[in-house]
Amino acid sequence: MSSVNTAIQLITREQAEQGTANGSTCSPALAKGPWDYDLAEALAGKPAYGPGASSADVAPPETPRQGQLPDEYKRASDEELDVRIRAAKATLGDRAVILGHFYQRDEVVQYADFLGDSFQLANAALTKPDAEAIIFCGVHFMAETADVLSTPEQAVILPNLAAGCSMADMADEDSVEECWEQLTEIFGKDPDDDGRVPIIPVTYMNSSAALKAFCGRNGGIVCTSSNAKVVLEWAFERGQRVLFFPDQHLGRNTAKSLGVPLEQMPMWNPRKELGGNDEQSLLDSRVILWHGFCSVHKRFNVGQIEKARLDFPGVNVIVHPECPMEVVDAADSAGSTDFIQKAIAAATEPTTFAIGTEINMVNRLAAEYPQHTIFCLDPVICPCSTMYRIHPGYLAWVLEELVAGRIVNRITVDAAVQDNAKIALERMLAARPI
Ligand code: SF4
Known about the structure:
The protein has helices at about 5-20, 35-45, 70-75, 80-90, 105-110, 120-125, 140-150, 165-170, 175-185, 210-215, 230-240, 250-255, 280-285, 300-310, 325-330, 335-345, 360-370, 390-405, 415-430, and strands spanning about 25, 95-100, 115, 135, 155, 200-205, 220-225, 240-245, 265-270, 285-290, 315-320, 335, 350-355, 375, 380. By secondary structure, the protein is α/β, with parallel strands linked by helices. The protein folds into three domains: about 65-165 and about 385-415, Rossmann fold (3-Layer(aba) Sandwich); about 170-295, 3-Layer(aba) Sandwich (Rossmann fold); about 295-375, Rossmann fold (3-Layer(aba) Sandwich), CATH 3.40.50.10800. It has a five-stranded parallel beta sheet with strand order 7-6-8-10-9, with helices on both faces. It has a four-stranded parallel beta sheet with strand order 3-2-4-5, sandwiched between helices. A four-stranded parallel beta sheet has the order 12-11-13-14, with helices on both faces. It is globular and about 65 Å long. The structure holds iron/sulfur cluster (SF4). Iron/sulfur cluster binds next to helix 8.
């Protein structure tokens, strides 16, 4: 099976040459080099997520921007970049470790020492204490988490600084602080007769280090999509209700699975007074959901599942819990990337799987398990825009800079933020080690 990038190149070429294409992609601009967007952003003075699933999301003005990639990397052919990356990697040896996220393009993942989800990768880096540089081929919050968990001597590098996460950017520290202030005014700070405080903040791993630190400071905790249920149970033991950010869908799907009624899950829109709620509905709430979402997982819908069931009777539909509730309800099961991978690995008979998660991961699973039929529920090729900003050209650049003794694109989390973020991460590990 060809990579997502190769498929996009083919579709756009066919479209240009014949006006028709065998397949479709959400944006023909995906076929270009990401440096075009870095330049376009610089000229427009406005940050953007680039083409792909989150292209319609509004990037906050403080979003990091990537300076221009030196021309030699833009002009280099795939073959030349391959030779240069392998040579730099061989020269650096154990001094550098490359991490590749499940949603990263194959052209980059092929050089990774570890492949996994964000938390697996941050932990994998810990097994390489001698590595002076951790090159995170993922997005900004992942590099921050790796910096929090790594030693101060290790430099975490994000090959393209514009590789953010539109979902993580939907909850900024100021808005969450403001929300917390308003909620504390309504709920007070006193525990109930069972010793449970009025509210516990829970942040998804897909959030800035500043928000993990906010949770650390305020008796809160971090969760992943693998342990969200355990973490919510932990929070309900200690608090009367939860403020869950930034992903409303993971929050709603998890709380629903614990029996929390939908009417006790108001949504907090940071642009509205009291988040768009009245005081009573907040007082009656069990989980207050931040108005955030992942634009990749938002693309999945019930119609796609119905079509898969019609086309492939007996199909096993598995979706990620960042998908909307109706999609999770209509699927056969829902779980993290790890869950999806394990479910496929566990199938002993040839099975047809329709998967609701990012296309790079689905295609990789399809190649890894040829005994099964595995396809993405979304027929349109639309990768995570920000993850797609990492092109082999950027990887070659950061590696060759390291060989030359220079560290570029280092992600550093402030020491005080690190300490508090670690508290929230340690609470998560203590809730149940993963
Ligand atoms: S897939 Fe969604 S949550 Fe993951 S990095 Fe991309 S935008 Fe963020």
